[in-house]
Amino acid sequence: MSAPFDMNDDNVVVIIGTGAGGGVLANELAQKGVSVVALEAGGRYLPEDYINDEWDSFGQLAWTDPRTTSGDWRVAKDFSGLPAWIVKAVGGTTTHWAGASLRFQDHEWKPRTTYGDIEGANLLDWPIDPREMDDYYTKAENKLGVTRTGGRAGLPGSNNYKVFEKGAKALGYEEVHTGRMAINSADFDDRLACQQTGFCFQGCKWGAKWSSAYTDIPRGEATGNLEVRDRCHVMRIEHNEQGKVTSVVYVDADGNQQEQRARVVCVAGNSIESPRLLLNSASSMFPDGLANSSGQVGRNYMRHVTGSVYAVFDQPVRMWRGTTMAGIIQDEAKNDPSRGFVGGYELETLSLGLPFMAAFLDPGAWGREFTTALDHYENMAGMWIVGEDMPQETNRITLNHDVTDQHGLAVADVHFDDHPNDVAMRNHAYKQGIAVYEAVGATRVFPTPPYPSTHNLGTNRMSEDPRDGVVNRHGQTHDISNLFVSDGSQFTSGASENPTLTIVALAIRQADFIAAELSKNTL
Amino acid sequence: MSIRKQAMTRRQLLSKSAMFGASFAIGSGFVAGQATAANWAVEVEHLKPETMATLIQLARDIYPHDQVSDEYYAVAVKGYDSADAAEGIEVGIAELNEAAKGIGFANYIDVGWERDRVDLLRGMEDSAFFQQIRGGLVTGLYNQKAIWPIFGYEGESFSKGGYIDRGFDDINWL
Ligand SMILES: Cc1cc2nc3c(=O)[nH]c(=O)nc-3n(C[C@H](O)[C@H](O)[C@H](O)COP(=O)(O)OP(=O)(O)OC[C@H]3O[C@@H](n4cnc5c(N)ncnc54)[C@H](O)[C@@H]3O)c2cc1C
Ligand code: SF4
C-alpha cells in the first residue's frame, strides 16, 4: 500500500510531530519500506515562505497556543504565557534552530555515576553505552552536513565571532572555533552554502541550514511510504483491552475530528506537548495517562542552564551580520566540580536583531539604563550559555484543567525551579562570559536572563528500570510495547550540548529498531 | 506538493498575543503606517489631543532615545486612539496628571525634568496601565522598520544576497 493511507489502515506507523525527532524518524522508516502517517499540528512552510523579520516570523512559525507557567524561574514572570519557544510547522523547531550540532561527551551518558548523589536532583544514567552511539552520531552528522565533521570545512568567522575568539584566547581558552554547525560551509546534499544572511532563527531562506522541513520530509514522501498530514492536531491516543495502542484521534485542517488506526504510535511533539498528549489520553485502564505507571510522565523537565552575555564596545561590531550562532568556547564543557558545580557548559555566540533585543535583553526594564544599551546596538556582541541542568522530579509538565486550548483540551503548565547547581553554573558562566568581553575592551556588559525555553527535554525519560522512567533504551514505552517516544522528551539527562544532533541520532537508531521489530512481527 | 500559506498577519498575532498575559503584551499599541508628528494631532478621534500629547511624552520617558523623533513615539501609541482603548487610557493619563499635581505641577507634561517624571513613573510601574503602555512599546516602538537605521540595524538581507560579500567579517579594530 502506498500513500495516501486509509484511516482504517491499521498497518501504518503513526508519528505525531515532524520536528527533529519525528521528521527524521518518518523519513528513516519510509526509506526502509515502512508505511508511515505523520500528523503535524502546524502548517507547511518552505524556504520561499520564511520571513526574515523577527516578529513576523514568530507569528508565522511559533507555537502560540496557550500554555501556563509556575515556579521560581524568571521566565514565569517575564513570559508567563510563553514558557517555551517552539515551532508549530512541518519540520518543527528545526525551522527555527541555529544549527549547533555537538555530540555528548562520554561521561554525560552516565551522570548519576559521574556526578554521584546530588541533593534534590533525580539523576539517572542513560541505559545506553556511549560506544553504541558512535555510528549513529556519524550518520546524524552526515545527514545534517555538520561542519568540522566528515571532512566538511568550518564556517568562516563573522564579526561577532572574531570579538568572541579574541577575548577567549586572551583568557587562555583553547577549544575555540566557529562551531560544528548543521549549516553548509560549501554546497552539500542539494543545499546551498551559507550566504551569511543572519536570520537562521527565522528559517533559512537559502536552505543552507538543515531542517527536516525541506530534507527528510520531502525525501520520505518521495518514497511513497510517507504521508504527512499538516494542520492536524492530535488530541488523544486510543488503546484496546489488551493495553495496546490502536489509533489516534485528531482535529484536521478543516476542524473535523478524525481517527487514524495504527500498528505503532510514535510521539514526537516536543517535551511539552508529548507528555501533555500522554496525560490527556488517560483512560479507565490508564487513569494517570498512557505509559505512566512510573509516575514519571511530565517529570524531570529540563531546559539547560542558559542565559546570555551581551557587551557594548567603543566601536561597531554589527553582530547581526552572519550566522545567528557563529562560534563556540568548549573549555568549560568538562565536568570539574572544583568550580562549585557538577557538569559543564558551552559558550556560543548569539545575535538578536533590534526588535528581539528590545524584548529579551532585560525583559520588563525601562528608562535610560535600558535604552542607552540599545543606543549602542551597533557596537554590541553577544553570546549564549548552554549548560547541563539537574533533572528534578518537581520540575514538570502537568495538565492545567482551568485553561483549555482551541480544541477544548487542558493546556500544559510548565513548572520550573532552578536547582542550586544550575544557579552556581549560570553565575560562573556569566563571570566567564563577561571576562571574555572585558578582555577585548567592553565598556559595558549585560548578564541577560534566560529566554523562553528553546531546549525542552526529559519529560518522558529513558530508564533501564521501568520504575524510574517512561521509555526503554529504544524509546519504547515500558508499559505499552507499540507506543514509542521519539523526541527530546526521551532524554535521561540534558548534557551540556545543544540537543538536536542527539535527538536525530536517537531517531535514526529507533528507526532501525522499529523496522526490525516489525519485520519480526513482534510489534 | 501543495503548500498552504497561512502566515498570520501582524494583527492576528497581536490579538493572539493578548493571551500571553500582561507581562508579554507584545504590541498591543502597534499601528503600522506612516503617521507623522504633524498629523497625529489632527488624527485623534477618541482621545483628547492633550491625552495623546501626554501619552507620547510618557512613551519617551519609558524608552527614551534622544536621537528618535516624536513621530515614532506617536506611531507607537497611536493604536490607543480607538473606541475600545480610549476610556482606559484617559483614566490612566488622568491618574498620571494627578500624581504630577501631588508634587506641585499642573500636569505630567508640565514636569520639566525627566528625572522628576521618572520618579513619578517608578511609583506606578507595577500598575496595569503602566505595564500596558510599556509592554505595547516593546514592539510598538522597536518593531518600526523606520527606526532601525537610527540604531544601525539593517534588517533583512536576503534580497541583497546576505552579508557574505557585504561585511559579515569586516571588523577592523580588534
Ligand atoms: C531559536 C531556537 C534555536 C535553537 N538552536 C539550536 C541549536 O543550535 N542546536 C540544537 O541542537 N538545538 C537548537 N534548538 C532546539 C531544537 O530546535 C529542538 O531541540 C528540537 O527541534 C526538538 O526536536 P523535537 O523533535 O523534540 O521537537 P520539535 O522539533 O519541536 O517538533 C515537535 C513538532 O510536534 C508538533 N506537535 C506537537 N504536538 C502535536 C500534536 N498534539 N499533534 C500534532 N503535532 C504536534 C509541533 O507542531 C512540532 O512541529 C533551538 C531551538 C530554538 C527555538
Ligand atoms: S546565515 Fe546562513 S544558515 Fe543562517 S539563515 Fe543565513 S544563509 Fe541560512
TrEMBL record, chain B:
It comes from the Bacteria. InterPro entries: TAT_signal. Keywords: Signal. Residues 1-37 form the signal peptide. This is Twin-arginine translocation pathway signal. It comes from Primorskyibacter flagellatus.
